[in-house]
Amino acid sequence: MEDGTRVVHAGLPDPRQHEPLLPGPQFASIFHLSGDPTGHAGVYGRYGNPTWARWEAALGELEHGQVVSFASGMAAVAAVLMPRLGPGDVVFLPRDGYPAVRSLAGGLPGVEVRTAPMASLPDSFEGVKLVWLESPSNPGLDLCDIAATCSAAHAAGALVAVDNTLATPLGQRPLELGADFSMSSDSKHATGHSDLILGHVAVGDPVLAEELQAWRRTTGAVPGPFETWLAHRSLGTLDVRLERQCATALELAKLLAARSDVSGVRYLGLPDDPFHELAARQMHRFGSVVVFDVGGKERAEAFLDGCSLVAQATSFGGVHSSAERRARWAGNDVAEGFIRFSVGCETASDLLADVEGALDRSAG
Fold this sequence. Notes:
Blueprint: H1 3-9, H2 50-63, E1 66-70, H3 73-81, E2 90-94, H4 99-106, E3 112-116, E4 130-134, H5 146-155, E5 159-163, E6 181-185, E7 199-203, H6 206-219, H7 225-235, H8 238-257, E8 263-266, H9 276-282, E9 289-293, H10 297-306, E10 311-312, E11 322-325, E12 338-342, H11 348-363
Parallel strand pairs: 2-3, 2-4, 4-5, 5-6, 10-11
Antiparallel strand pairs: 1-7, 6-7, 8-9, 9-12, 11-12
């Protein structure tokens, strides 16, 4: 079954006469519970919910693993890092990845954090307990060879987690490349409408899944049933959204690369991108994010103000195109004129005309 078909049907229950295709959210903090409790679902609202279960089953079909959902992407990150790292442990993180992950790891008592750029990872991870990868990296779009890195990390006795948010499970499957954890912020592409905060972790090992579930129960980092129902409803269009977004992103990257007043254009689908060959080998799609530099803070702000179809916002993966001057956030080692552009589902000709017009006006 192809991904486009799988994503439409993922997680749906078997058909029952007069029942909806996707049952509505189940709101419950308590359940009828007589005698001794058995299992975790149907015990208490922090332990499980049928709406979560359908959402997790849907994502599991796409990830080719077992999924545990969380209230946010950072809650999912915390569920991987915090139970496994204690005083004396070493964690490896990409220096150019999402800054909040480095902040979280750096605040763990007694944990040593080692870093390197995604484009130049160490050959050995000796002494490291957990290797955290972000490929493609946010916001630079650098890659690592995930399979080779997992092999090196496992040889040193380390587990490997991959932040797969930019790629999505339809663009890359880290578990199939050897990773132990595949984490995503589902606030982005998976839900796609810029109105939900969710996250998940996929694993291939049932023991790791139980550890994640136990962490969620203990910390209460649970997703809401209405949010997960909305997410599941939105998931069915992920393939068609990505198809439009990725195609337009390539056209936008070509337009930007042809302009003399724009530099540093990065899009993994461009044949001359430094990571194009690796992306073509380990990814199924090149993504919806394009990054580039317009030459300084003032022009970047003028360009963003001049776009009528592009929201100035700090996320990506939605049906509405959005962009931001990424240097406005601490922890991002990028130039003042660096733009992270998330391509939405607008008609390509309209979006490209809007961007080109804003670039022309801001150049003056």
